[in-house]
Amino acid sequence: MTDTPAPAIPASPASPAAAERRTTYLGLWRSVPRELGFLLLALPLALVSFTVVLTLFSTGLSLLAVFVGVFLVIGALIVARAFGTLEMARLEWAGRPAISRPLWTRAGDAVGFWPALLRVLANGHYWLHLLHAIVVNFLVSLVTWTITFTWLTIGLSGTTYWIWDAFVPDGDRGDFWLYRVVLGWFSPDAVPAVERALEPGVLENLFFLLVGLFFLASLPLVTRGFTLLHDVIGRSMLGAWRSEFLQREVADLSASRGAALVAEDQSLRRLERDIHDGPQQRLVRLQMDLASAERRLETDPDGARRLLGEAMQQSRDTLEELRALSRGFAPPILQDRGLVAGLASLAATSAVPVRVSTDLDPAAALPPEIERNAYFVAAELLANVAKHSGATDSVLHSALRQSEDGGRWLDITVTDNGRGGAALVPGHGLAGLADRLRGLRGVLTVDSPAGGPSVLAAHIPVPPPAHPPLI
Length: 471
Prior knowledge:
five-stranded mixed beta sheet; Heat Shock Protein 90
């Protein structure tokens, strides 16, 4: 079983609320429940992984002489991988960006039981997961859990001390008050002054309240800092290596190139078939009618006139078919006025009523190849609505957004109120459109439950603008 990553659906643009959660104190508080849950579960899970993996690994090392130990060592590596995958999933749940998974198997690896065991021993990722489970994660979790638990306990107990202090017997307290120790350390002369204003018990409650409020107020900084620490460690030890990113990049480029070639070949074949079955046949018929009319000009003028009328109709029909075929190419309005105007003109000629909405700036310049492909994709999506959906209304929306990794994506979305049931069936229109988008390194998403509505969205990456050469 290979670990080839599926095409990722581009992330939605970061909303202002999301930006606030990343940059403001209130946003830090919104993340506290998830980060606190992550940190408080870290030590129990680290103890389990430490115990299980270390037991398997140490037992396997002690039994290597009888060969059974090899299987125990391999088992320890596999279990360590499972705990590492769980840690990456927990980090995602805590709100951290997804960590790219390692390549556990590669294309061309030998198939079989023994080759699979040897791959486990030879793969460095397994040993890093093992080191993470029995050393790094255990020590880091011990420190972060202890500090987080202590921080939370002091914050909660300090802010509620005035409630349960009355029910706690004084015991051997004597004349010892904690506020005197702390305040006296800063300013010994301040202790008699504050005690003249308030009773020692009230001052002690107030002191604990202030301490508790301080610890609670700083809790988001503690949880965010420790979660980031776990994220950095997990990303460096559990995630894919840079070389694997390059391998995936090469594989994606090869797949994209192949998909683009297949889509282009299918488009050319379809265009050739459409021209042969449509305009070419009409032009042959037109030629025959004109030749027949020429022969009848002197002997049968009325018949020749009738044939010329039929020829005129044939020419009009041929022109309409050529116009329909030319929708797969960039129209002049796209080149002259840009994508926004091109999509509006496309919607105006649709057989199904189309409402157009856009977040694009009409003055924004996009690469010509991106505009042409976006126009073609929109035309195909609207044609699919007209042919198969049975819809009476549709919406064409376009937007240019910034992704979290800094890239730009052009989204073309068509929503209709039809019967639904659209799917990516091999050999059909939507599958060919998906191949075309894959050639652009884009993605086609289809959400079309039975009964509708259907939402088909094309996500096209927009390359950064070319910078002029430095002189």
